[in-house]
Amino acid sequence: SIPTLAIVGRPNVGKSTLFNRMAGERISIVEDVPGVTRDRIYAHSEWLGREFSIIDTGGIEMSDEPFMDQIKHQAQIAIEEADVIILVTSGREGVTDADEYVAKILYKSDKPVILAVNKVDNPEMRSDVYEFYSLGLGEPIPVSGSHGIGLGDVLDEAIKHF
Ligand code: GDP
Ligand code: MG
């Protein structure tokens, strides 16, 4: 089976935006999961000739669960299903309690985690990523889903673990 990349992170950091960018025009197979969500959460893609599938765990609805339980559940799905996990955070808001909570869960797993700091829309904002070293997941990579910046850096790191 082809390698799987899972996108994890608290709501509103830009997971779906990054997912759609990464899937882009290269989607070959998209499956909706009946009864789980109406959102597109699985896509196939490729980077530098390496094929992989992507899961947007934020699209998995668990409406009855409290906020922290939902993101915990999403992280657990990523740990079970993925070969590489991308933790998405936001450079605009900085490190939040929810980011720290998810980072701890991912840290305890033995899965490789890539730390993406989204919403770094211009070069002046790149210094906003340094505080994310505190999550203990290594080098934070500045990205902008809406401007299409930094996705190649994230995917370069991801395919190293395939
Ligand atoms: P999700 O809840 O993590 O899936 O986040 P979404 O992808 O739905 O994005 C949440 C909000 O952040 C939307 O209003 C997006 O337009 C916005 N957004 C996403 N990526 C970026 C980015 O790189 N820069 C900025 N400024 N806004 C972004
Ligand atoms: Mg989303």
Short overview:
The protein has 162 residues and is of the alpha/beta class.
Structural features, described:
This protein is of the alpha/beta class and 162 residues long. It has a single domain (4-160), classed as P-loop containing nucleotide triphosphate hydrolases (Rossmann fold), CATH 3.40.50.300. It contains four helices and six strands, in the order βαββαβαββα. It has helices at residues 15-23, 67-81, 97-108, 151-160, and strands at residues 4-8, 42-47, 50-56, 84-90, 113-118, 140-142. It has a six-stranded mixed sheet, with helices on both faces. The radius of gyration is 15 Å and the shape is globular. Magnesium ion binds next to α1. Belongs to the TRAFAC class TrmE-Era-EngA-EngB-Septin-like GTPase superfamily. EngA (Der) GTPase family. This is GTPase Der. GTPase that plays an essential role in the late steps of ribosome biogenesis. Residues 3-162 form the EngA-type G domain. GTP 1 binds at residues 9-16, 56-60, 118-121.
Low-confidence blocks of residues: 26-33
Say what the CATH topology is.
Rossmann fold
How many helices?
4
Distance between the amino and carboxyl termini: 11 Å
CATH class reads Alpha Beta
The structural class is alpha/beta
The count of DSSP E runs of length 2 or more, i.e. the number of strands, is 6
Strand order of the largest sheet: 2-3-1-4-5-6
Helicity level, as a percent range?
Answer: 25-40%
CATH superfamily: P-loop containing nucleotide triphosphate hydrolases
Q: How big is the Rg? A: 15 Å
In total, how many domains does the architecture comprise? 1
